[in-house]
């Protein structure tokens, strides 16, 4: 159907940053005319008309997906462009997001978007908030609600508590929270609705991490700073179809050059990787976190003042001071640790979520498997280790920050694999995404290609989402048992 | 020879004795295994590793294998297995990837023997060779299977699953060299231990992880697998391609399967999530478990038959930190509780009702049913669907009620929809109003029902009678008061509550029965007779789900009538809106103005228009009027019991969750059907928890009548008489049907678990689709129907029930 597709795309009206989409535009329509803010222009109004001929029938090429998104949503979001580096993943991500937001489900459409707003607001992610405010209104939501939590029905407001907990300290969620929401009352939630809401919350929290991690937020927030390379990617992909591959090759060249610059760092990384196999450290995962503390990995308190615009979103939040706290800092009580071997996504989470909100389990499962299977052979080759080892290290490190432990993982590996500066980045993006700043983004990771940076951000996104889901679903399971 | 020897040692002496018993463990169990002498059991988990001896009356702790001060992850067991040849040999799989063997013959306190640290990730399963003492096999999350010779320090061979996690490994009982491995991606592989380079066979068994497998103990080459997709499948490995020969659909992901000793077709299963029960299935009868153990309070993690050749003792460990011995004679048998009844509408609105013969009274006034000539022949019958149930010695009666074509006029329905008020006023007023409306449309029985509702819910007796009279007085003079609860008939001293009591009201019910049936017979040709008119709970449609609340109100608040009544929040399936206390009335008016008719209301049409000239067949059918009466009576009867009692279901825990998910709407539905069991002639046992299973399939899919029927015999053995127990997903029925009949055009397009709707293609083709609401009996509308797109010009909260919309009746 998409085989030979003519797509006319128009960009115009930059400035306010709020694109006018085409409501009701179906993904199946053959051509899409869309207005979107120009990332190309100098700020002057100008329109670009491009006719893209899609002759490729490969459904995995990013252009194909971009056109699909553009046609269905009326715009191409920065997040989509970023993920375009990994088309297989993008496809799976879009399917899930579409299902969550726009398909049959227990929650009404406007509420879904409002929940997304609430979730994104916890991380002061104006990019996502703006996006969903628009969609909220388009779905027929009550504009009054946008004035803040005071103006929404108590039922939705009750969700705020678990929103807060899941966003920052998911390990605190208990079956009492679930009980409270489900208790029969005028504003009680049904189990299906709650599960839908929980998946939405986790999705948006994790997506906020991705947005900050990839710098999409800066673009949106500061009105087209335009300095970030990634944003031109989307355009380049379209160019590629018309003007040959020059642009993308340009990009590749830049990346390659950059990676050459960082050969030094690479070598050291490789060394560290090899040392792992030699050294045998004690398998004490708590040491990892202690080391984190000593290294001052959870700092950044001083950058607090930098976050502006929090006032805008404060209306969607209660208890804005509630933030991430080191899991290990609480106490050394081992029993509190979440053991994946006792409650895992594959064995337990999937069955529960799929039972209460049909099909979402399969979509999430596919997404988790997809990110696990993403090939970054170049990265692995250069590091001289198996890609799976590196990925697993990042994944387990993220879960470890939320108190989720794998019996079969030696946490000493993390310290060997991940240099300090990478750990700072991962920790910031995972736990305090709003504190990611552009210097951080530029400063480290010079040894990675941009697509690899995106890849690591995807790992953060998925690991974080799974961590939140595991805690929430475990609480729901305990509620159901009792 | 080996086998023979074991038999004699085991059962030669004394047969096993014991009773159902349990003991508390200190921690949740992950797996259990028995010693070959059937007198000891080992329990392993994250924080427990103990051996218990099984005494006559109790479990006695024999040995704690967790020794040492520092808790080591090597003790955190994911699996445990006891060697079936050597009583001193045990192996455990640790969550940190270590495989440990234990020698109970060691004199020291620490019985740990060998430690294999070759796996990089959690080991999910360990398995001893059935006849080889020193051979141990392990399967791990890291995608490798390793074979160990216990006389050596390292593994002797490694089998690669291509980085796909291994969930279970089992040595074949028949072939010395073969073992089966199941994988997280749904595959099953067969390996030859002599050839570690590649698998012998591979096939995809499940959609999603295959958690477990078990070889049939009797040399049959059968392999049972259980997966996250909630299926248990039995594969015949004797053929060149693995062939699925049986499939059992359970209600939750399958964690363990274990063939029952000495019973060729029996298999025990337990689940990993939500459902805590253990089931023993006869794989030939996949819809209902043949036995069920319901003791555990959390998921069952390990099941094992106590002895290789004794089918009556089952041991189980659970996350609830208990160890149980189940005795087969104490098992609950869901089949005893299930009422084999089926109800189905045909394409043309005919209603077929099948029930156990003992439940329906005999009636000489029956005609044999010759089948409906109108039905196109699209069922290619490959085999007799009842064949598989031949060994079940129960027969049932089938009644078919034909729909009167002329009664298809829908005007009254539109009027009803427009004039009814369901919210915004006190309940009493609403009932009065609606009674009046119904009356005005010549639907006396409905009017009666409204009046009854008023009596039941808005007052306690005294006011009721006046109201009744008042309401009736407004109507026309000649009222066929067929089955109203005329207060004068009721002996004094009984409150309105007890009057409706099923058991006490038995004689009363029979009177009604006589009344109404005679009325019907007399009026056989009178089109106006609405003898089988809309049963109240169907009429109420969505309101039905709120009987509980109404009922409660009755108890707690005698002045409920004064309150303004509004539809409670979940009266409509809340799928697309949570606004601040919306005025339900508005929505209803929207609905009335709309040309579309909700699926629920469409049912009303079907239920209501059974013509009096119903044909019956066989010697034991339901008398027409009785069927009718049932419909009319079942609301009050259903209301008599608190909901918990009404849902007498085998899958208690699992279904509780299901019901919670489906919301009280579903609850209401079940209730409504169950009331069908309140047949006046029915035996009381059945009444207590009778559950009518409604199967969704075209009437033409019922077992071929000509085949079953010779002469005037009323017997048939419908294959649907034993559906899955309890509240089941209608899609499964359709799937079964599809498989059984190879029906073309019947297609599961879309099954939404939330609204329990099934989308199916009309058997007649024409590109028409219809959405069948979950468990509700419904009649496909007379006109064609189609699936509406998402752009229905209707309030969104009405969407789920409005997917089916009728085109205006084409009056013939």
Features:
heterodimer; A: 482 residues; mainly alpha; two-stranded antiparallel sheet; two-stranded parallel ribbon; 4% strand; disordered N terminus; B: 812 residues; alpha+beta; four-stranded antiparallel beta sheet; 19 helices; 24% helix; disordered C terminus
Give your account of this protein's structure:
The complex is a heterodimer of chains A (482) and B (812). Chain A contains 24 helices and 4 strands. By secondary structure, chain A is mostly helical. Chain A has a domain at 87-217 and 313-481. In chain A, α17 packs across α24 (450-481). The longest helix of chain A is centred in the C-terminal third of the chain and has 32 residues, at 450-481. Among the domains of chain B are: 17-334, Methylamine Dehydrogenase, Chain H (7 Propeller), CATH 2.130.10.10; 339-402, no CATH class; 412-457, no CATH class. Helix content of chain B is 24%, strand content 25%. A 4-stranded antiparallel beta sheet of chain B has the order 1-28-27-26, with no helix packed on it. In chain B, strands 2-3-4-5 form a 4-stranded antiparallel beta sheet, with no helix packed on it. The longest helix of chain B has 24 residues, at 652-675. The relative contact order of chain B is 0.09. The chains are: A mainly alpha (482), B alpha+beta (812). Chains A and B meet through α9, α17 and α24 of A and α15 and β35 of B.
Integer-rounded radius of gyration of chain A: 22 Å
Unreliable stretches of chain A (pLDDT < 50, length at least 5) are 1-58, 220-265, 277-285, 298-311
Mean pLDDT of chain A: 71
* Structure annotation, total helices of chain A: 24
**How do the strands line up in the largest sheet of chain A?**
1-2
How many extended strands of chain B? 39
- The Cα radius of gyration of chain B reads 30 Å
Strand percent estimate of chain B: 15-25%
**Helix and strand composition category of chain A:** mainly alpha
Main location (chain B): membrane
GO biological process, one term (chain B): TORC1 signaling
InterPro entries (chain B): WD40/YVTN_repeat-like_dom_sf, WD40_repeat_CS, WD40_repeat_dom_sf, WD40_rpt, WDR24
Keywords (chain B): Autophagy, Lysosome, Membrane, Metal-binding, Repeat, Transferase, Ubl conjugation pathway, WD repeat, Zinc, Zinc-finger
């Amino acid at each position: 159907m998409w085989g030979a597709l003519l797509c006319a795309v128009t960009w115009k009206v930059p400035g306010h940053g709020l694109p006018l989409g085409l409501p009701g535009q179906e993904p199946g329509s053959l051509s899409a005319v869309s207005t979107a803010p120009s990332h190309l222009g100098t700020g002057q109004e100008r329109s670009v008309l491009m006719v893209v001929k899609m002759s490729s029938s490969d459904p995995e090429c990013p252009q194909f997906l971009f056109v699909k998104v553009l046609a269905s949503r009326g715009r191409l979001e920065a997040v989509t462009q970023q993920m375009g580096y990994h088309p297989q993943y993008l496809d799976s991500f879009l399917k899930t997001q579409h299902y969550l937001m726009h398909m049959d489900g227990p929650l009404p459409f406007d509420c879904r978007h409002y929940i997304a707003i609430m979730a994104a607001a916890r991380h002061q992610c104006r990019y996502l908030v703006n996006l969903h405010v628009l969609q909220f209104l388009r779905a027929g939501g009550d504009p009054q609600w946008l004035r803040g939590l005071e103006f929404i029905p108590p039922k939705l407001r009750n969700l705020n508590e678990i929103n807060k907990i899941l966003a920052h300290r998911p390990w605190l969620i208990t079956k009492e929270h679930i009980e409270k929401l489900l208790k029969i009352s005028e504003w009680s939630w049904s189990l299906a609705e709650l599960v839908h809401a929980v998946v939405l919350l986790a999705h948006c929290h994790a997506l906020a991490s991705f947005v900050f991690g990839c710098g999409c937020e800066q673009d949106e927030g500061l009105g087209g700073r335009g300095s970030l390379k990634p944003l031109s990617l989307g355009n380049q992909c379209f160019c590629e179809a018309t003007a040959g591959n020059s642009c993308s090759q340009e990009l590749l060249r830049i990346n390659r050059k950059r990676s050459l610059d960082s050969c030094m760092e690479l070598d050291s990384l490789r060394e560290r990787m090899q040392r792992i196999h030699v050294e045998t450290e004690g398998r004490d995962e708590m040491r990892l976190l202690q080391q984190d503390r000593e290294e001052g990995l959870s700092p950044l308190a001083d950058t607090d003042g930098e976050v502006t615009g929090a006032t805008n979103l404060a209306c969607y939040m209660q208890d804005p001071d509630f933030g991430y706290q080191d899991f290990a800092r609480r106490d050394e009580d081992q029993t509190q640790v979440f053991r994946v071997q006792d409650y895992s996504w594959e064995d337990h989470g999937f069955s529960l979520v799929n039972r209460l909100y049909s099909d979402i389990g399969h979509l999430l499962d596919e997404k988790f498997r997809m990110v696990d299977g993403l090939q970054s052979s170049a990265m692995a080759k250069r590091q001289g280790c198996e890609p799976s080892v590196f990925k697993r290290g990042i994944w387990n490190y993220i879960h470890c920050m939320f108190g989720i432990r794998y019996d079969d993982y030696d946490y000493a590996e993390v310290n060997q694999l991940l240099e300090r500066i990478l750990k700072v980045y991962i920790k910031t993006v995972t736990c305090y995404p709003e504190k990611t700043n552009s210097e951080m983004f530029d400063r480290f990771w010079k040894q990675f290609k941009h697509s690899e940076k995106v890849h690591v951000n995807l790992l953060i996104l998925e690991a974080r989402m799974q961590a939140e889901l595991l805690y929430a679903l475990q609480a729901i399971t305990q509620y159901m048992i009792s | 020879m080996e086998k023979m020897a074991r038999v004699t040692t085991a059962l030669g002496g004394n047969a096993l004795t014991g009773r159902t018993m349990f003991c508390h463990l200190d921690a949740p169990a992950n797996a259990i295994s028995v010693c070959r002498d059937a007198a000891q059991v080992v329990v392993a988990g994250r924080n427990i590793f103990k051996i218990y001896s099984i005494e006559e009356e109790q479990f006695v702790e024999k040995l704690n294998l967790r020794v040492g001060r520092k808790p080591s992850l090597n003790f955190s067991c994911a699996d445990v297995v006891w060697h079936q040849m050597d009583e001193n040999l045990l192996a455990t799989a640790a969550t940190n990837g270590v495989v440990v063997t234990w020698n109970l013959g060691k004199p020291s306190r620490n019985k740990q023997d060998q430690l294999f640290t070759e796996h990089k990730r959690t080991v999910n399963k360990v398995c001893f060779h059935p006849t080889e003492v020193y051979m141990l096999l392990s399967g791990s999350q890291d995608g490798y299977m390793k074979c160990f010779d216990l006389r050596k320090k390292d593994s002797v061979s490694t089998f690669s699953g291509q980085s796909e996690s291994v969930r279970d490994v089992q040595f074949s009982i028949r072939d010395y060299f073969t073992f089966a491995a199941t994988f997280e991606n749904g595959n099953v592989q067969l390996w030859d231990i002599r050839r570690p380079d590649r698998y012998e066979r591979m096939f995809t068994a499940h959609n999603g992880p295959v958690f477990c497998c078990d070889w049939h103990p009797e040399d049959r080459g059968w392999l049972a697998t259980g997966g996250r997709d909630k299926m248990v499948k039995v594969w015949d490995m004797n053929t060149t391609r693995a062939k699925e020969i049986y499939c059992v659909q359970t209600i939750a992901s399958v964690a363990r399967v274990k063939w029952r000793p000495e019973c060729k077709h029996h298999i025990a299963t337990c689940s990993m999530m939500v459902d805590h029960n253990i089931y023993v299935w006869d794989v030939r009868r996949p819809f209902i478990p043949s036995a069920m153990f319901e003791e555990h309070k959390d998921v069952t993690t390990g099941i094992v038959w106590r002895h290789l050749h004794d089918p009556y003792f089952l041991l189980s460990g659970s996350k609830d930190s208990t160890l149980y011995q189940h005795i087969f004679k104490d098992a609950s048998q869901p089949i005893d509780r299930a009422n084999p009844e089926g109800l189905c509408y045909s394409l043309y609105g005919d209603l077929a009702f099948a029930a156990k013969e003992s439940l329906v009274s005999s009636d000489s006034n029956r005609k044999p049913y010759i089948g409906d000539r109108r039905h196109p022949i699209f069922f290619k019958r490959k085999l007799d669907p009842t064949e598989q149930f031949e060994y079940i010695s129960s027969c049932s009666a089938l009644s078919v009620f034909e729909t009167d074509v002329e009664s298809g006029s829908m005007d009254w329905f539109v009027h009803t929809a427009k004039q009814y008020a369901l919210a915004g006023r006190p309940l009493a007023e609403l009932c009065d109003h609606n009674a009046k409306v119904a009356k005005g449309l010549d639907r006396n029985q409905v009017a009666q029902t409204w009046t009854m509702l008023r009596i039941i819910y808005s007052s306690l007796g005294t006011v009721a009678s006046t109201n009744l009279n008042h309401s009736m007085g407004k109507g026309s003079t000649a009222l066929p008061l067929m089955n109203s609860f005329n207060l004068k008939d009721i002996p004094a001293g009984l409150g309105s509550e007890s009057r409706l009591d099923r058991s006490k009201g038995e004689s009363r019910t029979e009177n009604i029965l006589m009344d109404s049936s005679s009325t019907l017979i007399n009026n056989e040709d009178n089109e106006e007779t609405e003898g089988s008119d809309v049963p109240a709970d169907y009429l109420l449609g969505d309101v039905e789900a709120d009987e509980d609340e109404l009922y409660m109100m009755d108890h707690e608040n005698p002045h409920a009538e004064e309150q303004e009544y509004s539809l409670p929040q979940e009266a409509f399936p809340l799928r697309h809106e949570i606004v601040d206390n919306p005025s339900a009335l508005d929505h209803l008016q929207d609905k009335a103005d709309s040309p579309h008719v909700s699926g629920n209301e469409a049912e009303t049409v079907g239920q209501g228009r059974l013509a009096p000239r119903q044909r019956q067949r066989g010697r034991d059918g339901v008398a027409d009027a009785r069927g009718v009466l049932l419909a009319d009576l079942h609301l009050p009867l259903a209301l008599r019991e608190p909901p918990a009692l009404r849902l007498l279901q085998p899958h208690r825990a699992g279904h509780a969750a299901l019901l919670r998910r489906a919301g009280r709407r579903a609850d209401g539905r079940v209730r409504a059907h169950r009331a069908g069991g309140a047949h006046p002639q029915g035996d009381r046992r059945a009444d207590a928890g009778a559950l009518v299973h409604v199967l969704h399939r075209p009437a033409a899919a019922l077992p071929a009548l000509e085949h079953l029927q010779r002469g005037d015999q009323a017997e048939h053995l419908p294959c649907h008489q034993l559906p899955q127990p309890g509240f089941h997903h209608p899609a499964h029925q359709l799937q079964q049907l599809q498989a059984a009949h190879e029906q073309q055009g019947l297609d599961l397009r879309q099954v939404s678990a939330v609204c329990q709707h099934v989308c199916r293609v009309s058997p007649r083709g024409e590109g028409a689709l219809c959405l069948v609401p979950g468990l509700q009996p419904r009649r496909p509308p007379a006109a064609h129907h189609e699936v509406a797109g998402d752009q229905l010009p209707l309030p969104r909260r009405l969407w789920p029930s409005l997917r089916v919309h009728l085109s205006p009746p084409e009056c013939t």
